[in-house]
């Protein structure tokens, strides 16, 4: 069966420090991968998605970047964190769509990031 | 234009009462539709999905949803609320753009004893 891991589970970082969040998927190959953010009291915001190694689509211009160095690894990074980067970060995967529509996205447990 | 609209950011019901969470979508072609549940500080868990088969979809934990094309709706229901249903619920749509979901803003369900 497939599983998705995220780490760390929680992170407290000072403003201006770098960030690296990691997401890995097991039990599937060539998945689509996604990074979402939930700010306090707000819904899900899609940040990045990837359909293959080295292929990253950015949804929202911001202080963050994403990379996919391996098929089942997705990394969210920042060179200098801002206060506004605080939030709950979720990674998800799905089977690549056939016929045009993406089927179920499966979510990881999330990382709670607090920037002070 | 919003792809998914969830009416009511907060819904409160008594234990044992009917749960109705509303979701309307905008799409020129039949989409795939999903309901997810999120408990505090956890990821999202799939409750149920509609992928153009039966219009009445049954999910986990006694939830179900009905796809109504004429109303562009996919409301989530449960006949009798349980305390453990207290969580945030998200409706999502997959449109014909190959790779993305569009999520609603979420509805927090409170269940009163």
Can you put this structure into words, describing what you see?
The complex is a heterodimer of chains A (116) and B (113). With 116 residues, chain A is mainly beta. Chain A has strands spanning 3-7, 10-13, 19-26, 32-38, 44-52, 55-58, 65-70, 73-78, 87-94, 106-107, 111-115. With 113 residues, chain B is an all-beta fold. Chain B has strands at residues 4-5, 10-14, 19-21, 24-25, 32-38, 44-50, 56-58, 64-68, 73-78, 87-94, 101-103, 107-112. In chain B, a hairpin with a 5-residue loop joins β5 and β6. The model of chain B has no long low-confidence stretch (mean pLDDT 91). Classes of the chains: A mainly beta (116), B mainly beta (113). Chains A and B meet through β5, β9 and β10 of A and β5, β6 and β10 of B.
The largest β sheet of chain A comes out as:
7 strands, mixed
- Strand-residue fraction of chain A? over 45%
Count every helix of chain A, treating DSSP H or I runs of 4 or more residues as helices: 0
**Order of secondary-structure elements of chain B:** EEEEEEEEEEEE
> Overall 3D geometry of chain B?
globular
Secondary-structure-based class of chain B equals: mainly beta
Helix % of chain A is under 10%
Mean pLDDT of chain A: 92
What percent of the residues of chain B sit in helical stretches (DSSP H or I)? under 10%
Distance between the termini of chain B: 38 Å
Largest sheet properties of chain B: 6 strands, mixed
Enumerate the spans of chain A where pLDDT stays under 50 for 5 or more consecutive residues: none
Total helices of chain B: the number is 0
Q: Tell the overall outline of chain A.
A: globular
Biggest interface, chains and residues, is:
A-B, 24 and 26 residues
Rg of Cα set of chain B: 13 Å
Query: Quaternary status of these chains?
Result: heterodimer
Give a brief description.
The complex is a heterodimer of chains A (116) and B (113). Chain A has 116 residues and is mostly beta strands.
């Amino acid at each position: 069966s497939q599983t998705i891991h995220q780490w760390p589970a929680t992170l407290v970082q000072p403003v201006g420090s770098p960030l690296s969040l990691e997401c890995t998927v097991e039990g599937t190959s060539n998945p689509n991968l996604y990074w979402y953010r939930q700010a306090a009291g707000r819904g899900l915001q899609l940040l990045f998605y990837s359909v293959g190694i080295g292929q990253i689509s950015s949804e929202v211009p911001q202080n963050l970047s994403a990379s996919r160095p391996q098929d089942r690894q997705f990394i969210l990074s920042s060179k200098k964190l801002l206060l506004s980067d605080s939030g709950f970060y979720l990674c998800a995967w799905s089977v690549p769509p056939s016929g045009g529509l993406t089927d179920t996205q499966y979510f990881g447990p999330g990382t709670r990031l607090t920037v002070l | 234009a919003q792809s998914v609209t969830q009416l009511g950011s907060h819904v409160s019901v008594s234990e044992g009462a009917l749960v109705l969470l509303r979701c309307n979508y905008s799409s020129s072609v039949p989409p795939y539709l999903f309901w997810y549940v999120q408990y505090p500080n956890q990821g999202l868990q799939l409750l149920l999905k509609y992928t153009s088969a039966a219009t009445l979809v049954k999910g986990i934990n006694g939830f179900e949803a009905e796809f109504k094309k004429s109303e562009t709706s996919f409301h989530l229901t449960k006949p009798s609320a349980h305390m453990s249903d207290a969580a945030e619920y998200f409706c999502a749509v997959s449109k014909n753009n190959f790779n993305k979901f569009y999520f609603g803003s979420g509805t927090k369900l409170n269940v009163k004893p």
